[in-house]
């Protein structure tokens, strides 16, 4: 039986103050939940919180398919895309002409 990844397993592990001074919750992604062909959920934990502020509860948040949200770049997006075939350095228009500072 094949299962697909459908949810993130998340725990609230404390609070912090945001820039505006409001108290916000701190979250940790602890694993992944899978849904089988029969509709059953199973999950694999990678991390278990040890914070004394953790309530012991996990929450499941559906994973959105990000592949649908991201547009596919048009052909020729890069000014010198033909330079790739010639093994020459290329310039990414999103980065500009600045050198990387390290």
Structure, described:
The chain is mainly β. Helices cover 8% and strands 37% of the residues. Strand 2 and strand 3 form a beta hairpin. The mean pLDDT is 79.
Any key phrases for this structure?
single chain; 102 residues; mainly beta; four-stranded antiparallel sheet; 2 helices
Describe how the helices and strands are arranged.
Blueprint: E1 3-17, E2 23-36, E3 41-45, E4 59-62, H1 66-69, H2 82-85
Antiparallel strand pairs: 1-2, 1-4, 2-3
Unreliable stretches (pLDDT < 50, length at least 5) are none
User: β content, as a range?
Assistant: 35-45%
Give the number of helices. Answer: 2
Q: Radius of gyration from the CA trace?
A: 22 Å
Mean pLDDT: 79
Give helix % range: under 10%
Give, in order, the helices and strands: EEEEHH
Amino-to-carboxy terminus distance:
49 Å
């Amino acid at each position: 039986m094949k299962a697909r990844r459908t949810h993130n397993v998340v725990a609230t592990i404390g609070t912090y103050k945001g820039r505006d001074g409001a108290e916000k919750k701190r979250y940790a992604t602890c694993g992944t939940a899978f849904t089988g062909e029969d509709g059953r959920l199973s999950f694999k934990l990678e991390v278990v919180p040890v914070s004394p502020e953790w309530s012991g509860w996990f929450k499941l948040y559906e994973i959105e398919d990000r592949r649908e949200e991201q547009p596919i770049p048009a052909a020729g997006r890069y000014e010198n895309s033909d330079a790739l075939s010639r093994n020459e350095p290329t310039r990414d228009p999103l980065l500009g002409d600045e050198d990387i500072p390290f």
